[in-house]
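Chain A, query sequence.
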Amino acid sequence: MRRLNLSNENTTMKYEILLFDADNTILDFDKAEEQALARAFSEENLQFDRNVLGVYRRNNIAQWQLYEQGKVTKQQVLIDRFVKTFEDLSLDAHNIAKIADLYEYYLKFGFATVPYAREVLEELKGTHRLYLVSNGVLEIQNSRMSGSGLDKYFVERFVSEEVGYPKPQKEYFDYCFAHIPNFNKRKTLVIGDSLSSDIQGGVNAGIDTCWFNPSHCDNNTDLVPTYEISDLRQLKDIV
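Chain A, predicted structure.
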């Protein structure tokens, strides 16, 4: 893995096509998630605190990983993450469907962005072709991209719901590549916060990868990203 090092000649490599993940790469999903959950639980008169948030997040991540592996459908993810959370918290299951619907509704208004996302995208748009690559729910991603104002920076959005395959499957990226004019693998970089989705996907597709890791999490996998950054502004020294 090439961490950002200006003395390393490899950092002068130039890319033409940049594939950006959405959640927790340019959009602040953690903030949007917490706000949407709090509103959904409040509307159903259920207690919401850090423990509830932690249990939900654990189950949500587990379900999305199953989706990435092709073991469950996206619709199963959207309901099973709440089923398992309610089971873990010993909550009455009668309003799970309502909570799930409310959460998705309020998530549409999660317009917060990660630090420097707008600044970096504004600069890169003038020199590169930017594409969005996301496993999120199509309607929600469209709303959040539009509401945040980040949609204007991207040539096109590739959301797994429309593609028919999730990241990290090679078929997902094959679809993207087929819909990018004058595509060149050697001139393409995927940027994302998820090792299992974005970095594994880039490896599967045979393109360079950049792991966005602002929390400095340990990489406990066998994956070796081409680059690792903790601040989006560092991209400008890579691309």
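The first strand starts at residue 2 and ends at 3. The domain at 30-107 is CATH 1.10.150.240 (DNA polymerase; domain 1).
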